[in-house]
Amino acid sequence: MLFWEGPNILNGHLSLGGSDGYASRLVLEPLADFDNDGNLVPILAAEVPTIANGGVAADGTSVTWKLKPGVVWSDGTPLTADDIQFTYQYVTNTATAASTAGYYAPIQSVDVVDDLTARLNFKGPTPSWFSAFVGTPVVPKHILASFVGAAAKNAPFNLKPIGTGPFVVQDFVPGDHADFVFNPRYREPGKPYFGQLLFKGGGDATSAARAVLQTGEVDYSWNLQVPANVLKPMESSKIGHLVTVPFNGAEMLFINFSDPNKTVDGQRSHLGTPHPFQTDLRVRQAYALAVQRDVIANSLYGPGGTATANAFVSPSRIVSHNTSWEYNLTKAAALLDQAGWKKGSDGIRAKNGVKMQITYATSTNALRQQEQEIIKASFESLGIQVTLKSVDASVYFSSSPGNDDTYGHFYYDVEMHTSTDDSPYPVGFAQNWYGAISNIAQKSNGWSGLNISRWQNADYDKAYQQALTEVDPSKQPALFITMNDLVVNQVAVVPMVARNLVNGVANSIRNMTPSSCAGSTWDVANWTRG
User: If DSSP codes are grouped into helix, strand and coil, which group holds residue 118?
Assistant: First the structure.
C-alpha cells in the first residue's frame, strides 16, 4: 500500500494526518463503523445499538454497547468493557491532547455493566451518540494505563500498538514506512488473507498513481490527486484501475484570522493578534471572488471532484442550496478599493504602510501546486503579492507540536487542504469553526484544537452547540445549513472542490468494499488476490 503521506504515529487518537489513521486502523479497531451507504456495521461490537433493541435510550441520553465474546488483544489479553471505559478516560484527559477528543466530549461517564457491556451516559440528549467509538479505536487499558495525560505522547504504544485488528506491527519508521504481519489471534479464523502488508509513505501522487496503474509495483495507492489529463491515460495499461468514492469533504482555502508574522507567548498566529487585513470581510470576499473553482475542478480534478460553494458537502440532506460562487476580478478589485487597499507604484496594494503580501501554503503535491499557481495568478492580478510554499505532506499533516510547518500551527496567511468528516452527522467537521477557546489551535493545547483559522462567530457557536443535542431529525439539517452559510458568507474559508477520493487498485485485488466514511483500510481483512 502506497500513501504519499507517510504515517508518523500509529495511535489513532493522537494522529492528525490521514495516513496515520489508515495505518493505525490495520491494528486498532472501533466498536463499529459506517459503510459507504451510511449504515452502521459492527466491528468489535456484537450488534449495532438501536432504540428497538434497547441499546439507544429513547431520549438520546445513553447508549449501551455489547462486545463480541472471545475477542483478544494481539498479546492474548481479553478485550473487555474496562477497555471501553478506559478509552474514554484516556481520550478526555485534556493533557493527553487527543485529536479525537471532540467526539467524546458529549459523554458524561462510562459505566461497566459487565465484562462485555458498557453504557455511555451523555451530558444531555445526544443525536450523534455514535460519534465516540465509531471510527475511533478502543485502546488497551493494560498497556496504556500508565500513559494517560501528559505521558501519552511518550508511550511506546504510539509506534508499536497492541490491537485487535487483522495485523500487528513488525517494523515502523515514522514518516517512511510501516510493515505489518498478520495477527494470529485475529477473531475471524483464516483472516486476513495476506501474511504481510507493507505500508509505504512518501513520494508524490503522480508516482503513486504510476506505481499501481502502470508498473504494478504496488497493490494500492491512496488519494491520487493527479491532474485528470495525466491520471486517466494511466489506466490503459490494464494493470490497475481507479476506485472513486465520495470523500465527504472539500478542498478549501483556509484563511488565518490571526497574524502569522508576530510572536506572542512563544507562538505565532496567536489568537490575540488579529491579521492586518484578513479580518476585513471585504478582503475575504475579494479572495473568494478570485478563485476559479470550475477551472480547478474540471481541469485538475476531473473524476476527483466538482466545483462547490459549500464547506458542508455531505450527506445530501444537510447540503445548502442558499450559496453560490462566482469568479469576478472586477468585483474583487472594487472590494479591495473600498477597504482602502490601493495599488502602489510596484503594483502591490498597501494601506497605512502595510503591504498586502501573503504566504500561501499547502502540501507538496503536483495537483495542489497547480492549484496554487492558478490562484496566485488571480490574486497577483489584484495587487496581492503571493509567496507560495509547499510542505512535504508527511510534515504538513504531522501531529508534531514542535514542527512549525504543520497545518495545525497555521503559521501562514492562507493554507489549502481537504477537510473531511467520516460521520453522516458531521458535528466533528463542524468543530473546525467552533470558537470555544479550548478548540482554538494554540500552543497551550499542543495545537490539537480543530479551529486552526481562529475565526469566532457567536451565531455559528450557537448552531453548533444546538447540533450537539438536537435529537429531532427534522430539525438537524437546518442547523448544519446555518453553519455552512455562516462560514461561506463570512468567508471564514473558501470552499473550492467537493472531493471524491480517487484510489488506484491493482486488478488482482478482490473483495474490497470502499467506504467514504470508514476509510480505505477498514475492511482490509477481507481483501484477497485472484
Answer: strand
Cis bond before residue 315 (omega within 30° of 0): yes
Of 500, 22, 106, 526, the C-alpha closest to 305 is 500
Its domain, for residue 298, covers 247-422+492-499
Whether 91 is in a domain gets the answer yes
Domain assignment present for 355: yes
Residue 358 is classified by DSSP as E
Amino acid code (one letter) for 344: G
280-320 pLDDT, tens digit per residue, is 999 999 999 999 999 999 988 888 899 999 999 988 889 99
Give the span between the Cα atoms of 300 and 226, in whole angstroms: 7
Q: Indicate the residue among 107, 129, 163 that finishes a domain.
A: 163
The three cell numbers locating residue 181: 504481519
Strand, coil or helix: 476: helix
Query: What CA–CA distance (Å, rounded) separates 68 from 453?
Result: 42
Q: What is the pLDDT of residue 422?
A: 65
Phi, psi of 67 (to 5 degrees): -85, 150
CATH number at residue 292: 3.10.105.10
User: What CATH number did the domain enclosing 159 receive?
Assistant: 3.90.76.10
Residue 287 lies in a domain: yes
3-state DSSP assignment of residue 250:
strand
Return all residues near 94 (Cβ < 8 A) that are at least 6 apart.
Answer: 101, 438, 445
C-alpha cell at 278: 484578513
State the residue for C-alpha cell 472471545. 70
What three-state secondary structure class fits 444?
A: helix
Same-domain status, 258 and 399: yes
Distance CA 347, CA 171 (A): 54
Q: Which of 110, 143, 163 is the last residue of a domain?
A: 163
**Which residue positions in the chain have pLDDT lower than 50?**
none
* Residue 129 dihedral angles phi and psi, to the nearest 5°: -60, -20
Residues 6+ apart with CB under 8 A from 374: 292, 295, 296
Give every CB contact of residue 41 below 8 A, 6+ residues apart in sequence. Answer: 32, 33, 34, 35, 48, 518
Bridge partner list, 196? 181
Query: pTM value?
Result: 0.70
